[in-house]
C-alpha cells in the first residue's frame, strides 16, 4: 500500500472523495448544498436543522431526550437527528465536506478537529461564546484543549465533555484470588497472570486490538515508560527505547492472558466481552461506566485511574475533549447556535454526561451530585484537574493525526499482537509518519 506523507495524502483523499456521491439523506438544514468552505448564512433562526451525533447508537437515547427538551423550549425549530457510529464519523465528515452535504451541527472530537477545521468546514465560535449565556460557564482546561486541537488558535467547537483512561477491574475476582487493587503497573501485570486460566476460559485482561487500539496502546506505553512529553524538539518520543520496551511488554499479554479474539476488539466488543465473561480487567474510558453498572451492578467492579509506576508517578496521555461544531455551510446558523447553546447548558450537559459517565464541560453541571456518586468519573476528574498526573498531550492539532493514529496504524498494531512485527518496527514507522506531519505543520504555521 502506498503511504502518502502529509499534504500528498490529503490531496489524494480529496481527489478520491470528489467522486463520491453526496450524502443526500442527511443534508443540512435548508437544501443541503453546502460544502466545506461554503460560508452559509445566519438564516431565520427558525425551521429545520440537522444534527450529526458522532457516537450514534451508544448515545442516541440521551440525545433524543435533549432534542425533545430543546424543541419544547423552541417550538419553531425542528432538529433532525442522525446517529453515526464513532468509527465511521471521520469518513462521513470527509465525504460530506467534498460532496456538499454537511449537517448544521455535529459532534466533533478533538482528535479529528484539526483535519476538519483545515478544510474550512467549521465556524470559529469564540465570538458567539463571548456573547452567549455560556460565557464563563465552560471549563477553562477543556476550552484550552479544544483551541489547541484546532491548530489555528480558535475555538471550532463548544466543549461538552472530557473522558479519562480508566482501569476497570472485577472486585469479586480479585477478592477470590487474594489480589491487591491493581493501582500500579507491576500489580496490573501480576493480576493479569494470576487471574488467567485459559483452559477454563478465564483471562486476566482484555486488550483492544481493533478500531481505536492506538490511543489505548499509547496510554499504556507512556504510563509505563514515565516519559512526560510527546515531542523532544521536533522529533516524537513514541519510539524512545523506554516506550518500545513498554509496548513490547503490553502487547505480550495478547493470547497469554487475554482471549485470542481480542485482536479484532473495538470498544463495543471489548466492553460486551468484559461485562458478560470471566475477565479480570479492562482498560477503557469513562464512557462505558454505565454499561458496566447495567451488566454487573456496582458491587462486582471498580473503575480506577490507570496504574502508576511503583513510586507513584502517574503519566497518562490526553483524551480528546468532545464538542459540538457549527458547520460553516449551514443555511441556518442562528438556529444551529441556539441548539449548541442549549446542549451545552447546565441541565443538558449534566444529563448527557451523567448518561455517558463523562466529565462535564459546563462548570455548573460538574458540581451536580451525581458526579460524586459515579466513582470512576469522580476519580477521573480528580486526576485530570488536580495536578497529580503528568498529561502527555497528543498532537491533535496535526491535520493528519486522526488518519495516522487510526486507519494507517491499527492494522500495523495487530501485527505486533500477532507477533509478525515487533514493537520497535511499529513505533519506528509511526515516528517517521509523525515527524513528517509535524515538519509539514510547522512549515505551514511558522
TrEMBL record:
SUPFAM superfamilies for this protein: Periplasmic binding protein-like II
Signal peptide: 1-27
Pfam families: SBP_bac_1
Name listed for the protein in its UniProt record: Putative secreted sugar-binding protein
Tagged with keyword Nucleotide-binding: no
Keyword check for Lipoprotein: yes
UniProt keyword annotations, A-Z: Cell membrane, Lipoprotein, Membrane, Palmitate, Signal
Amino acid at each position: 500500500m502506498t503511504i502518502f506523507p502529509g499534504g500528498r495524502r490529503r490531496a489524494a483523499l480529496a481527489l478520491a472523495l470528489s467522486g463520491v456521491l453526496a450524502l443526500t439523506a442527511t443534508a443540512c438544514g435548508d437544501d443541503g448544498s453546502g460544502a466545506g468552505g461554503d460560508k452559509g448564512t445566519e438564516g431565520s433562526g427558525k425551521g429545520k436543522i440537522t444534527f450529526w451525533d458522532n457516537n450514534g447508537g451508544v448515545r442516541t437515547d440521551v440525545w433524543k431526550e435533549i432534542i425533545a427538551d430543546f424543541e419544547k423550549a423552541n417550538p419553531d425549530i425542528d432538529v433532525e437527528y442522525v446517529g453515526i457510529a464513532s468509527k465511521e464519523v471521520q469518513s462521513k465528515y470527509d465525504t460530506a465536506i467534498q460532496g456538499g452535504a454537511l449537517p448544521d451541527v455535529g459532534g466533533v472530537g478533538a482528535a479529528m478537529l484539526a483535519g476538519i477545521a483545515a478544510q474550512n468546514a467549521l465556524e470559529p465560535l469564540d465570538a458567539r461564546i463571548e456573547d452567549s449565556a455560556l460565557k464563563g460557564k465552560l471549563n477553562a482546561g477543556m476550552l484550552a484543549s479544544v483551541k489547541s486541537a484546532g491548530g489555528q488558535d480558535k475555538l471550532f467547537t463548544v466543549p461538552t465533555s472530557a473522558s479519562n483512561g480508566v482501569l476497570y477491574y472485577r472486585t469479586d475476582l480479585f477478592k477470590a484470588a487474594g489480589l491487591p487493587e491493581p493501582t500500579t503497573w507491576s500489580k496490573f501485570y501480576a493480576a493479569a497472570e494470576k487471574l488467567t486460566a485459559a483452559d477454563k476460559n478465564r483471562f486476566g485482561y482484555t486488550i483492544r486490538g481493533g478500531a481505536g487500539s492506538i490511543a489505548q496502546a499509547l496510554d499504556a506505553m507512556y504510563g509505563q515508560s514515565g516519559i512526560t512529553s510527546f515531542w523532544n524538539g521536533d522529533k516524537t518520543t513514541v519510539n524512545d527505547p523506554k516506550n518500545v520496551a513498554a509496548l513490547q511488554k503490553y502487547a505480550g499479554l495478547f493470547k497469554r492472558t487475554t482471549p485470542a479474539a481480542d485482536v479484532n476488539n473495538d470498544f463495543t466488543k471489548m466492553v460486551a466481552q468484559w461485562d458478560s465473561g470471566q475477565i479480570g480487567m479492562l482498560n477503557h474510558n469513562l464512557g462505558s461506566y454505565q454499561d458496566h453498572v447495567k451488566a454487573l451492578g456496582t458491587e462486582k467492579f471498580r473503575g480506577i485511574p490507570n496504574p502508576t509506576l511503583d513510586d507513584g508517578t502517574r503519566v497518562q496521555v490526553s483524551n480528546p475533549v468532545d464538542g459540538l461544531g457549527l458547520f460553516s455551510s449551514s443555511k441556518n446558523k442562528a438556529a444551529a447556535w441556539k441548539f449548541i447553546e442549549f446542549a451545552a447548558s447546565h441541565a443538558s450537559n449534566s444529563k448527557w454526561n451523567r448518561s455517558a459517565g463523562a466529565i462535564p464541560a459546563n462548570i455548573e453541571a460538574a458540581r451536580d451530585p451525581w458526579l460524586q456518586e459515579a466513582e470512576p468519573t469522580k476519580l477521573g476528574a480528580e486526576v485530570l484537574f488536580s495536578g497529580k498526573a503528568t498529561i502527555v498531550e497528543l498532537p491533535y492539532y496535526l491535520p493528519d493525526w486522526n488518519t495516522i493514529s487510526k486507519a494507517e496504524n491499527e492494522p500495523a498494531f495487530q501485527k505486533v499482537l500477532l507477533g509478525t512485527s515487533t514493537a520497535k518496527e511499529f513505533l519506528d514507522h509511526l515516528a517517521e509518519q509523525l515527524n513528517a506531519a509535524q515538519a509539514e505543520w510547522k512549515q505551514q504555521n511558522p
